Amino acid sequence: QSVLTQPPSASGAPGQRATISCSGSSSNIGSNTVSWYQQLPGTAPKLLIYNNNQRPSGVPDRFSGSQSGTSDSLAISGLQSEDEADYYCAAWDDSLNGWVFGGGTKLTVL
Amino acid sequence: QVQLQESGPGLVKPSQTLSLTCTVSGGSISSGSYYWSWIRQPAGKGLEWIGRIYTSGSTNYNPSLKSRVTISVDTSKNQFSLKLSSVTAVDTATYYCARYRSIAAGFDSWGQGTLVTVSS
Lengths: 110, 120
What we know:
The complex is a heterodimer.
Chain A (H helix, E strand, L loop, with lengths): L8 E4 L5 E6 L10 E6 L6 E4 L13 E6 L2 E6 L8 E9 L4 E4 L3 E5 L1
Parallel strand pairs in A: 1-9
Antiparallel strand pairs in A: 2-6, 3-4, 3-7, 5-6, 7-8, 7-9
Chain B lengths: L2 E5 L3 E2 L5 E8 L9 E7 L6 E7 L4 E3 L7 E6 L4 E6 L8 E8 L6 E4 L3 E5 L2
Parallel strand pairs in B: 2-11
Antiparallel strand pairs in B: 1-3, 3-8, 4-5, 4-9, 5-6, 7-8, 9-10, 9-11
């Protein structure tokens, strides 16, 4: 049981927009910023979004993040087949004094 | 560009200690004020943070694993290590090493991961 809650799956047609939610509590998302990771099959996770809505160099602006209260969301616009992957949210938890992750969302591009 | 590489036995017997090392290349483990972490992922499941170490040697561990985990750093070898004692089958996972500068910055570099199987 993950501390952060994500839907197990999401989908969208090529060119459309998909959104993945991440729900937490006052001790994690409510107090600290969220980062998002993309994990392609058989590879290590890759940082996609940090500080709620910042993109590392090289990440397309099709990816965006937003936070509201104790929830966060990742939006992917202009879906492409190469966006098919597992996506994880993460945040520092002040009560646990450590990082917590969501259970992951498998994105399918129809 | 910094690179991280995990190494260690791929098979560990139940009740024994799992030992892994992460070698950092392309930069000094002592510079840049980074935290160095271990994260694991059982096959087909999500990510679990194991713990972190700062270059000063200070550590934080996942409370659920704290009694069995030790993370240490060897700055002379540009490495940090993980020891997980009294392993069982539930510790079978791919283990990743990763770094972050601050909790706002996220884990910006990851190793490729190494699969550790606990079995007799």
